[in-house]
Design goal:
By secondary structure, the chain is mainly alpha-helical. It has 13 helices and no strands.
């Protein structure tokens, strides 16, 4: 319908409008730096989005059957799994953005390195908010109430254009990133509040039950993984400067982060029996796939 088309058009505008403003108000040199950070952020965003394609038909069927209980369970559990993937990805990328850019480009000496790192960090923050409400957006479509998504998208694009122009003039390159991030946060927050009010969900209860725990687990995991930086300084005596150094540091810190994060998930009780069965089934699928390749 028209609501979904407007939302899609708004997303297209948001993807490119900052680059146009940067080229016009500052220099085309900044466009490349922006695009590098944005590209990596979009790739990272695509991993949690793999959970979404099955949600629309499932929610449409449940809504048609007037099965409100299972529709609510789909919303809660889907949002839970989305947050379990989104938070650790975002935390790790934001904290290790410079290493990721070095791994991607091969060194830290190219023009625009600092700007690319900043773009990756700030855009990732905005993507977190937009990802966390993605489950609700698709369920809203399945329920036949896409107007909340449309309004949210319009808010994002209008704010993005207005804030980016003002902040680029005031702050330069960081202004474009801040405008995009703030507009994404505000628009996503509007959708989250409006949609949950429409279906009778408590916003604060959802945040407490679904989002707070993985957020705190990521804080703990990140803090412990960042201790590895101290040992890397002793070993290398300098920040990572090439692809190999960046790869080694990302691998070690990633394994520490993942290990602590999984330990928190399974020891805290946040992951229930049903979740563990799904996780075990996923591991079994991986094993079968590896055996077939052999």
């Amino acid at each position: 319908g028209i609501n979904i088309r407007v939302a899609s058009l708004s997303e297209l505008i948001n993807t490119h409008v900052d680059k146009i403003f940067l080229g016009y108000f500052l220099s085309t040199m900044f466009v490349g730096s922006y695009e590098l950070g944005a590209k990596i952020a979009r790739i990272a965003r695509s991993f949690p989005e793999q959970l979404l394609p099955a949600i629309l038909p499932a929610s449409s069927e449940l809504h048609a059957l007037d099965d409100k209980d299972n529709l609510q369970k789909l919303y809660h559990r889907g949002s839970k799994y989305l947050s379990l993937l989104t938070f650790p990805l975002a935390f790790f990328i934001i904290a290790n953005a410079s290493l990721i850019i070095i791994l991607w480009m091969g060194n830290r000496g190219f023009p625009g390195f600092t700007e690319s790192v900043l773009a990756l960090q700030m855009l990732s923050v905005g993507y977190v908010f937009m990802l966390l409400v993605s489950m609700g957006r698709l369920i809203a479509r399945g329920m036949g109430i896409p107007q909340y998504e449309m309004r949210s998208s319009v808010i994002i694009v209008i704010l993005n254009i207005a804030l980016s122009i003002i902040l680029i003039i005031k702050l330069g390159f960081p202004g474009a990133l801040l405008g995009t991030t703030l507009s994404g946060i505000i628009g996503s927050t509007y959708f989250f509040c409006a949609f949950n009010r429409r279906i009778g969900e408590s916003v604060f209860s959802l945040i407490r039950k679904i989002f707070i725990s993985p957020f705190l687990f990521c804080l703990v995991s990140l803090g412990i993984s960042m201790l590895a930086d101290y040992f890397f300084v002793l070993l290398f005596l300098a920040p990572a400067a090439n692809r190999l150094d960046a790869f080694i540091q990302l691998l070690v810190k990633g394994l520490i982060f993942l290990g602590v994060y999984l330990l928190c998930l399974f020891k805290s009780g946040y992951v229930d029996k049903y979740d563990k069965e799904i996780f075990a089934g996923f591991l079994e699928m991986i094993k079968v796939g590896l055996k077939r390749k052999k």
